[in-house]
Amino acid sequence: MKLIKWHKSFVERAQKEMGISNYALYWFGFLEGALVMWLLMKVISALWIKSEFPF
């Protein structure tokens, strides 16, 4: 529970300092998740397929 409270306060503080709206914060979260998934899929496919140029 401490971690959740800390994370909420950290995100709220960062959001206020950057001056971004909740809507923008949701988009940043979505895009970050999409980027992480894309990178993860690239790494997995590179390890799965033994080729000279995986990317």
Put the structure in a nutshell.
This protein has about 55 residues and is mainly α. It is about 80% helix and about 0% strand.
Textual characterization of the structure:
By secondary structure, this protein is an all-alpha fold. It has one domain (2-48). It has helices at 2-18, 22-48. The model has no long low-confidence stretch (mean pLDDT 91). The chain crosses the membrane at residues 23-49.
Indicate the low-confidence ranges by residue numbers.
none
Strand content: under 5%
Q: For the residues shown, what is the average pLDDT?
A: 91
The helix/strand class is mainly alpha
Largest sheet: none
The end-to-end span amounts to 41 Å
Number of domains: 1
Radius of gyration: 17 Å
Strand tally: 0
Protein name: Protein family PM-16
Keywords: Membrane, Transmembrane, Transmembrane helix
Transmembrane segments: 23-49
List the keywords:
elongated; mainly alpha; 2 helices; single chain; 55 residues; membrane
